[in-house]
Structure formats: structure tokens, C-alpha cells
């Protein structure tokens, strides 16, 4: 039985190749040492600027690149599209000290192909001494290349050998069309969420959309602003007790759970600081569980790319409540952890490629079964 973080051992897969691009010699050396100690990684080159990073991507075609945003000359933001053009199979982990400016830039990069971001401590001593930062760095790098790392403990996963017979058709929609769209996503999610919402287009005016994207607190307000600019409808973090309205996208605030409640006959946002669920806060299972309880078949669940199994139990609750659940398919997912978990647990009503999800939801909103 294989964990999603472990792949069959083979000469080609024992060591994933890494390029480290950072203008600090100390940071490059520290990352290289951590990767050497973690196992399963081989640092093939380092770069102190974006131009050199692009050259290394062209030459080595690494499995993953650690890319600093702030570098002299060509910075990480400008280098990213060139890196992905020269080596499209390279997973990019952004590494930056996240102030307001860098948060916006990191989100922009993630919508353009970077897979994840790790926030560097403000001081050199903080970076050197922080075990939490080291663990987060190695875990996110391992997630990107589907490779286990030695230090620290990883979240438990569900049995990945559960058989499944393939896609299951969406249950027939007789009189109840979805009026609420609840979305869960993690690694690779910013780009996927933005694309799905853009592709739904005018159909969003007939939906109340609530999104849990695994993100740190600094990111979610900027992500909501970016989504609003991209899709042309209001998007924001809700406040506790806010009445949820059609034609608006609500993004879970980073570090806090976002659920749904019914108060005085209205559907409202429920913001909470309860302990993490599935090692996550916000957690998709919290949102989906509340949606099943208060919305029933009026909800449509969507599980997009992401590591882990958050959303699996909530998807099961949605199905039991009569709601449909769409899972992103494996080829179009950055990491098929969350949607794959839903599929293996047989909670998915349909498994759809990212490029086709928006059109499918438009059909459902009109009461038409997708082709």
C-alpha cells in the first residue's frame, strides 16, 4: 500500500533534482544542507539571480526549483514564466519574506504556474533556528514532487488502494438546481479556483459561492481581491454572521474556519477559531459539513487540487444530504490528493478535468445535465 507521499522506488525516482535560486549565499547553503539531510533530493545547481535560474532550468530540467521572489536583475516574478517555458515539468516552490507586496506577487505567481509558497522568517537567525520553518519547507517541497522526507511527521492519509470503478454520473436534477457552490482546494488551488470561477462566468450571478483555500492569514484578503479582479464579481472574506448573497464569492480568512449557519431564516457565514481539522484551518470538511447540514441538495460541492484528504468526510456528508460533488480529475490536478481521496471514498458524483468544470457547473445551474 502506497501513501500519496511515497512513490515506488526506482533508480530514476530515488532522488529528485532541485535547483535553489536565492540571492543569499547563506540561504542557498542552508536549503542545500536541509535537502541533503532529508534524503531523496539532489541539488544539481544554485543561482543567485533570475537569469541564472532560467539557465539552470534550461540545462538541468529539475524536478523542482526553489525560487526567491527578490533577486537582483531578473527577479523571481520575471524569471518564473521563462523557467516554466524552458522546463514545463519543473515544480516551483516560491520562498520569500511575505510582506504586503510579496504576498500579492506570490499570489500572482501561483496563478501563473508556481505550485506553493513558503514564508521565510524575517531574520537570518530565525531562519536558521526555526524548526517549524524547516519542517514546512521540506514538507511543501516533498508534496510538490510526491516524495517523503525524513524529519517531522506527515499528516495521515486514507487508504489509497481502495478500488473505484471510475466516474459516477451526477444524480438526476429534477426540481432542485444548485444555488450554493462550495469549493475546497489546497496546493495548486489559487490558479484552479480562479479558472473555474472565470469559466462559470455569468452563472456566478445565480450562485452563492464559498471557498476554502488552504492559505496563511496574509494571503486570503489579497487572494479575494485578485479573484474579484479576474472574474468581475464581488469576492471577499466574510465576517461572522454575514448574510451570504448570490453573485458574491466568499473566501475563508486564513487561519480561521469558515462554515455556514442558518440564523433568523437566513444563510450566514460562520467564522470560528476551533482547532484545526485534518491539520488545516480553514478546513474544507468544516465548510462541507455545514453545507450538508443547512443547504442539503441546494449545494454543489467541488474539490480541487490539493495535498491530503481534507474534504473527504465533508463530501460524504454532502452526498448523504442529496448534494452532488465534483472532483477534479488527476491529469489536470497539481496534486491529486484531496480530489483523489474523495474519489477513492466513492463520494464523487463526477470526475472532471479542470478545463471542463466551469462549463459543467454552468449547465447544472441552468438545470441541464453536463454532456
UniProtKB/TrEMBL annotation:
A Pfam cross-reference name: Response_reg
Compartments (UniProt record): Cytoplasm
Post-translational modification: Phosphorylated by CheA. Phosphorylation of the N-terminal regulatory domain activates the methylesterase activity.
The protein's Enzyme Commission number: 3.1.1.61, 3.5.1.44
Main location: cytoplasm
Sequence ranges assigned to domain CheB-type methylesterase in this UniProt record: 172-368
Similarity comment text for this entry: Belongs to the CheB family.
Protein name: Protein-glutamate methylesterase/protein-glutamine glutaminase
Species for this entry: Bosea robiniae
Gene that specifies this protein: cheB
